[in-house]
Fold this protein.
Amino acid sequence: MRRNAFLGYLVAQLIVIFAVMFLFKFIADRQVAATIAGVLFVGLPMLLMAFEYRRADTEEVVWYVGVMQFWTLFALPILGLRVFNWGVPFDQLAFLGIPGPVLHQWSSKSYMVMMVLTAWTWWKLSRKKV
């Protein structure tokens, strides 16, 4: 039986949430803290997808879709908005007509979807006997 890596993925996703909270607590410049958080939110899914692809190719398609929806619809656009509009308050930015704050609200929900799908995949594989 292959090792079920999805619990590790879920733990990594939780660690990123706590890391982002600490960033905003200890870095006074909110724009810098938000940019570092954005790098974490872009980097983690990219690393998880690469690791999972090397480990098991694309067996868990639903999980990949869950990660990709967060990464492509929210993490990349929000980081891009922040980096390419440095110095502009985030509440004044928009991506494809969607205001930055609305995009950020939905990104939180999207991240939770990604986490739920990771937990579900872990649970599903842990029950599977091979």
User: Anything to note?
Assistant: The first helix runs from residue 6 to 26. DSSP finds four helices and two strands in the chain.
